[in-house]
Amino acid sequence: MAITVYFVRHGQTYLNRYNRMQGWSDAPLTEKGIEDAKRVGKALSKVKFDYIFSSDLSRAVNTARLLLAADPNTDLKEPIQEPAFREIFFGFFEGANGGAVADIVGGKYGYHTFSQMAAGWGTDELKNRIAKADQYGDAEDAERFWQRMDKGFDRLRNLPDNSVAVVVSHGAAIRSIADRYLEGVDQNVSPRNGSIMKMTLTDTDTHVDFYSQLHIPDK
């Protein structure tokens, strides 16, 4: 069994632009975000993919639709919405200023950005610390996140052998996948809006072929 998957981060939203926490909360794509989606559609036009999934959050769904419209080589018209591919849920911190939340969670440890915390602690420990800091107890910890995300990977693994799929997902989710499966990934590098991560899934391995690229690298 071998399944090829291209994970795409959605286009820029207004909450991205304003550096606000955006997990299960949602915001429209900016003009740049629309262009992000069109650009990645053109980048993926050299790939013959059989399926396109997106998280069920509107920024991912709309990115997927724009991606499809910009790709002249696909007959697919609508993404398959899969909640398993949602962003991490930040609970009480949804919509808050990202820099302020980074100071709350990591400031006393000398971390003032999410990239610094991810690099210092790893993405799973970062999830756990955000969840612990949420006074309402709603934010996802690593265990809850992976229980959900692994259902999405199970769905991908159940596709017909040699299938090629695109999955439009989210920045922290994609960075978490890279942290788990790509040894030596630089956690100071967040996947850019409209960037691509390629993976190969087999019966025995889950492999990241490349991470956070704006184009399909030449072989």
Automatic annotation (TrEMBL):
Record-linked PANTHER family: FRUCTOSE-2,6-BISPHOSPHATASE TIGAR
Domain of life of the organism encoding this protein: Bacteria
UniProt KW keywords: Hydrolase
Return the SMART domains for the record.
PGAM (SM00855)
CDD domains in the cross-refs: HP_PGM_like
Q: Which organism is it from?
A: Limosilactobacillus urinaemulieris
Provide the protein name. Histidine phosphatase family protein
Q: What InterPro entries does UniProt report for this protein, alphabetically? A: His_Pase_superF_clade-1, His_PPase_superfam, Phosphoglycerate_Mutase
